[in-house]
Amino acid sequence: MSLINEILEFNQDFVADKKYEAFDTTRFPNKKVAVLSCMDTRLTELLPAALNFKNGDIKIIKNAGAMITHPYGSVMRSMLVAIYELGVNEIMVIGHYGCGMKGLDASKLLQKMEDRGITKDKIDGVRSDIDINKWLSGFENPVTSVEETVSLIKNHPLIPKDVNVYGFLIDPHTGKLDKIENVTE
After folding, report:
1. Fewest C-beta atoms under 10 Å: which of 15, 36, 38, 50?
2. Residue 103 main-chain phi, psi, to 5 deg
3. Cα–Cα nearest to 170, from 56, 55, 73, 62
4. 81 phi, psi to nearest 5 deg
């Protein structure tokens, strides 16, 4: 049986047994917090558990490295919707130690794309629209990366000044959270 078929079979049982009732909540976050976090699999359940967040408490926005690569991209749009439509008044940017985005090399990633059949013409087509090397690059220091993301959010022209924005790093093994102090405006 394929993984997708296993997932579908489990889902049918989940719904039939009404297991969803334990997760019933509204679309509005109880704690009025949005968390921008890395997509690392170690954080899927650890991060909410380590911070005492239950289903319905927060809005979680996940992407590689907990980075915002464009001030008007989908991550920032999600932040704005969370604030203006869902009542969020605090934002936590939570990077983590041992992140795979640390030292990510765009040229190596592009080579892997070519190895999987993406042609140079397609890559060059994207390159004509954006700085693909910058877009596909990671960071050298997770603290600096979180600081830059926090600063981008705080200084964004569409983020109200009464929204508090904080930066953190979490240990993906223990869940220990370290606050990053002195994030520049």
Report:
1. 15
2. 80, 10
3. 62
4. -65, -45
